[in-house]
Structure formats: C-alpha cells, structure tokens
Write a structure and sequence with these properties.
Length: 131
Amino acid sequence: MLVVAVVLAGMTSVFSYLASVSAEGPKCAGRAWLEGYHIGIMALWVPPVWSALIVAAVGFVASGRSKRIRNVLRDYDLPVIEFASMQITLGESVTYSTLLMALLMLGSVTGFSVMRYDAIVSYCLAAIALN
C-alpha cells in the first residue's frame, strides 16, 4: 500500500509541476484561471503537499509500529468476516478500510492533477499553435 501511495504522490507532484510550467507559457502567463482551473501558486502546490501528508499517514499506519494501532488491533479482536480458515477482525477491518480510503483520496487528487494538467496544456498549446 505504501508503494501505491508513493507512486500516486509522485504522479501528483509531477503533473502539478508540469501544469505550473505550462501555465507560465507566453500565451497563458499572468492569468488567474485557465480552462476552469485556478492556477495560482496555492492551487498548484497544495495537492503535492496534501499527497505527501497522505503518504506519511499511510506509512505510519501500514508500519504497525504505533502502540495505539496495536492496541486497536488487540482490543477489537472480534471476528467480523470468516473465510474457510481465515478471520478478519473488527480492528483489521477498521485499520485497512482507513488505509483504503486514504489511497482512494490520493487517487482522486492524482486524477484531478492529471485532468488539470491536460486542460491547461491543451489550452496553452492550442493558443500557441493558432498564432
């Protein structure tokens, strides 16, 4: 899970950087909005920072070194789902669903960054090609 989080955060960072570089092109420079996306410094650098925080949280939870997480896994040792000889406890269910939601949030931030980059670069390149 940590590898997936790092890859998604890396993609978010790369596409946010590329969007900021594209937005500073000669035809797009100085505009606050391009193709419905805000291109200010905060709008372009908040997603990579948010992604790094999610990666840190996923790494913290996935490592299992926290005493609090171990206590949750120990205290909520009630079987919720049983397959053949495998049991999934309430603590595992809560912990892993939290990790999965963090990855889904990170995936949506990455998707937004890719769509924003595509819209900005398409507009800026079309504006350059027409002149």
